[in-house]
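Task: encode each sequence below as structure tokens.

Item 1
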Amino acid sequence: MAKQLDYHTIREIFARFHAAEPAPEGELHHTNAYTLVVAVALSAQATDAGVNKATKRLFEIADTPQKMLDLGLEGVTEHIKTIGLFRQKARNVIKMSQILVDDYGGEVPNSRAALQSLPGVGRKTANVVLNMWWKMPAQAVDTHIFRVGNRTGICPGKDVDAVERAIEDHIPADYQQHAHHWLILHGRYICVARKPKCAACLIRDLCPFEDKNL
């Protein structure tokens, strides 16, 4: 775990991220808050590309909780069978949809606690939905962010909760909205797990990681 970077270094890092891509976006396809929460829930232990492929047709015919219930468990299962843990995820989608219809008038709630009460929705999923749909500066820490945060010292922590707090505590407020997307994309395409692409990294001179592949 790298030492926590200072304010000025972190500000320079995010200034570079912003200059390279001012408004980064998540890569999961969705059309509304409901399809977003379903897509994020399905993405656990699966790739965004795999989820997008599976949900393309699903969301064309079931983009509301009621339409998903009308499709039924077997229909949902058939559409997402290429995704890992698809049977349990299909059950969660149906349970989630029923709760949204029964308790929320078919609308997706926009508090973290309410979102986390839905089947298959954890804190990370809730934070993604709050950030991407309602523009709340919530930080969804996945394996990419955990790796980048600890490797670079941007937001080190022993677990995902500690990394989330480090992001909120140390990244300047004007970069909070897009912080987790910049970090995810950096970890997914540049600061990869086994052989980080340090030669192509725009913050390599600010990063304390010693085993740089230059």
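Item 2
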Amino acid sequence: MRRCRTRHWPGERWQYQIASDLAGVLVARVTGRPFEEFLRERIFEPLGMRDTGFHVPAADLHRLPPLYAPDPQTGEFHVWDPADGGRHSAPPAFAGGGGGLNSTADDYLAYFRMLLDGGLHRGERILSRPAVELMTTNRLTPAQEAARTAMARDNVHISFGQGQHGGWGFGMAVRTYRGDYAPVGQFGWDGGSGTSTYADPENRLVGILLTQVGASTPDSTRAFHDFWTTLYQAI
């Protein structure tokens, strides 16, 4: 038995993304099908997520805005990932479970509504209720939570969702304490490309913020805070 290059035994420490990438590989190998094909048949098509995939077809590239990333030192904006000829304009060499999907607010809303409804979408069972409960329940031990919190504390301007909610389920952050307006049990994720999406079972709401500015400066994270503060104040 050998350790992987991360130098931690499985389950020993929380780390960003790696486990989800491995899960995608396992799904592909167990089913004998490409990971994206499996997702499309089992998740995307039943939910009507027609605009979700690992690349944007040429006919739809005009709908994809460029991604900007400000220079942390000067604040000057640069195009980090253009739409035409960018990272998402062609199928990736590896469709990983840890990231890389392109989507829309409508598609993402359908997915999170399904989770809020315990795996149901318009009366059709997409995921089992126990599976959704496992996904949206904190799975970390106290030691794993401490490592994740340290990661967020040391990289606060780029990792708002990577520890500041307290817990982690299967593929998403899970709030375990109330430090602002959001209640315990809220689940979702903040993306480094300037996105923030969470579902709140207590208030039966989903919030989706899609920007085109990468979270390389504190301003992007402040925008997340302002968005969620405004949303919860509205209710």
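Check on item 2: The two ends are 53 Å apart (CA to CA). The chain is about 30% helix and 15% strand.
End of task.
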